[in-house]
Design brief:
Elements: E1 23-24, E2 29-30, E3 44-56, E4 61-74, E5 79-83, H1 90-97, E6 107-112, E7 125-128, H2 140-151, H3 158-171, H4 192-204, E8 210-213, H5 222-237, E9 241-245, H6 251-254, E10 259-264, E11 267-273, H7 277-283, H8 294-302, H9 313-320, H10 335-359, H11 366-373, H12 383-402, H13 405-421, H14 430-471, H15 477-506, H16 513-552
Parallel strand pairs: 5-9, 5-10, 7-8, 8-9
Antiparallel strand pairs: 1-2, 3-4, 3-6, 10-11
Helix pairs in contact: 2-3, 2-4, 12-15, 13-15, 14-15, 14-16, 15-16
The structure holds adenosine-5'-triphosphate.
Residues 53, 55, 64, 66, 84, 86-92, 103 line the site of adenosine-5'-triphosphate.
């Protein structure tokens, strides 16, 4: 799709016309046509983006500048790569562009079809985070099916949504591992590359207009990385706008990007076509002296390392002037001097030209612009369906934790100890009745706190998932709260029942059946209350996050 092509009509999603073809000979795998169906085109532009955070110390408060005057644009059909050394601000910029920044308010302007960010965009944006946030015990197919059921529009039937999940599995080449668990550091599951593809699948399943990816190739071998970038290119070819951060791409990978932003310490060192980056740097006097991967060369420059790179005469002059701050021990310009030179060179030689291009209005009609600006949220499915899907998913995921041998042994061991301490206690005489009352009190207190502690420890694991899914408007918070609270109950009640059964027979509580059953009811109520408390806490934290998010989103 050409950037200057005028688009007249918004295209409606149909989700049934994905075409598969061509072979990816390069990566040696069968490649299909990814997400070829039409979508709402989104032109993303950003100018003078600045971002600062306030770091509160014990004695003082410091303001740290993370991004300074970043600009750029990316059109449907293009892949924009954000490159730079570690800590240069790639993730921050990506999060700002994807409307996912919390905390301080960013400066500058970010527009989508010339309109500011709106809630409507949440359902049109796919965001693949750096960390793979997935449920470890869910299988690949289950993970994608749940995403399809929750995120795809109401107009599709359940079967169509499930088919869409299977299509995505085919498209991403995940057929072989579709019945494998995702896994975690404790549970063996799919490989790192497969997990990354599941994360991408989770996002492309909605056929997003804008796809953001934070280091999708980190930790992968070059063939798998190439395959992932090839997938991104295919997605972009379907009319989507793709923005990805990337650490150290191979030269083959580098040439697959349409546009490039090179960052250094939060400043812009280059924005433009990736294929023209080397020409630009040679025009400012920086060229590799030996054959080098362009990405490696650019990262070296952004780090201020100019070994095996020609030194621009302007920089050399500064060194010869004998300024110790700009010179290293071997007589070469210091990294700080190189950085300063690169920032200045881009500002004076290229920035104005690029900024002028950004001022040109996006060539799309008003209908498309206004569509982006609607503040109406679009839920994929009704409240009840959200609840039932989340209920089933919760039940499936957490049964592994609940029925771990460690937990069963823990509960049974405590039951046996109690049974031995109160072994066949006779509840006929008043002192013994007091004894049994003590036991019943202990049981109620134990089961009042046990689920609370469980909830406290499981919450941090779920929080990342809740944040990720709510950021994409996958479901309502109330549906999550009710499903989370109720899906734990059947599991929560099984272990206490086992526990109580053991204590009942060992401690000879048959004679005090009345108080015993009263205790059971109390135990179950305690568990319900603990679950409710957990849900309320999670919702409170989530709402607090959302308030922060609302403050910082512009
Ligand atoms: N909320 C924050 N508070 C303090 N410092 C922050 C905050 N957010 C980002 N930073 C700092 O801003 C800088 C840029 O961070 P960012 O994560 O964007 O870098 P990056 O280029 O994505 O790095 P990497 O490639 O290692 O992921 C880092 O020095 C980071 O420590």
């Amino acid at each position: 799709m050409k950037p200057d092509q005028t688009i007249r009509m918004p295209v409606i999603q149909t989700f049934d016309n994905i075409k598969r073809a061509s072979e990816d000979l390069e990566a040696g795998i069968h490649k299909k046509r990814i997400q070829a169906e039409p979508t709402l085109p989104i032109y993303l532009k950003f100018t003078d983006v600045t971002y600062k955070v306030v770091i509160k110390g014990v004695t003082s408060t410091v303001e740290k500048e993370i991004l300074n005057g970043i600009f750029g644009s990316v059109n449907p059909g293009e892949v924009l790569a954000l490159m730079g050394p570690s800590g240069s601000g790639k993730t921050t910029l990506l999060s700002l562009l994807g409307g996912r920044v919390r905390g301080s308010t960013p400066g500058g302007s970010i527009t989508y079809n010339d309109q500011p960010y709106s809630k409507f965009l949440k359902s049109r944006i796919g965001f693949v985070t750096q960390d793979d946030v997935l449920f470890p015990h869910c299988k690949v197919r289950e993970t994608l099916t749940y995403a399809a059921l929750l995120r795809l529009p109401k107009t599709l039937t359940k079967q169509e949504k499930e088919k869409q999940a299977i299509d995505v599995i085919d498209e991403l080449g995940l057929e072989r591992c579709q019945d494998t668990m995702i896994g975690s550091s404790f549970v063996r599951g799919v490989s790192g590359g497969e997990r990354k593809r599941v994360c991408i699948g989770n996002e492309i399943i909605i056929n997003p207009s804008l796809l953001f990816l934070d280091e999708p190739t980190s930790g992968l071998d070059s063939t798998t990385a190439l395959r992932i970038v090839q997938i991104l290119q295919d997605i972009a070819e379907g009319g989507k706008t793709v923005i990805t951060t990337i650490h150290q791409p191979s030269s083959r990978l580098f040439h697959k990007f349409d546009k490039l932003i090179l960052l250094g310490k939060g400043n812009l060192l280059y924005f433009g076509k990736a294929s023209e980056a080397m020409v630009y740097f040679s025009s400012i006097g920086c060229s590799p002296l030996i054959a080098m991967n362009p990405a490696e060369f650019l990262l070296d420059l952004a780090n201020g390392n100019i070994n095996d790179v020609s030194v621009p005469s302007e920089l050399e002059d500064r060194v010869q002037m004998g300024n110790s701050e700009t010179e290293t021990r071997n007589g070469k310009p210091s990294p700080a001097a190189v950085h300063e030179y690169l920032v200045g060179a881009y500002e004076t030689r290229a920035a104005d030209n690029e900024k002028k291009k950004l001022m040109i209005p996006t060539p799309i009609d008003e209908e498309l612009k206004s569509k982006v600006y609607t503040s109406k949220r679009e839920w994929g499915t009704s409240w009840w369906k959200q609840f039932s899907i989340l209920f089933c998913r919760g039940l499936k995921e957490r049964r592994h934790d609940y029925f771990s041998w460690l937990r069963i042994t823990q509960v049974l061991a405590i039951a046996v100890i109690l049974g031995l301490l109160w072994w066949q206690s006779d509840g006929n005489s008043p002192p013994n009745q007091q004894d049994q009352a003590g036991l019943l009190f202990f049981i109620a207190v134990f089961w009042g706190f046990f689920p609370v502690f469980t909830a406290i420890f499981t919450f941090p694991q779920e929080r990342a998932m809740l944040n990720k899914e709510r950021a994409a408007d996958m479901y309502r918070l109330s549906a999550y709260f009710v499903a989370r609270t109720t899906s734990d109950l059947p599991l929560d009640l099984l272990l206490p029942s086992l526990f109580l059964l053991v204590v009942y027979f060992m401690a000879g509580l048959r004679k005090s059946a009345g108080p015993f059953f009263l205790t059971m009811v109390t135990v179950f109520l305690c568990i319900v209350a603990a679950q409710g408390l957990f849900g309320a806490t999670s919702c409170k934290l989530k709402v607090a996050n959302q308030k922060e998010e609302a403050k910082s989103t512009f």
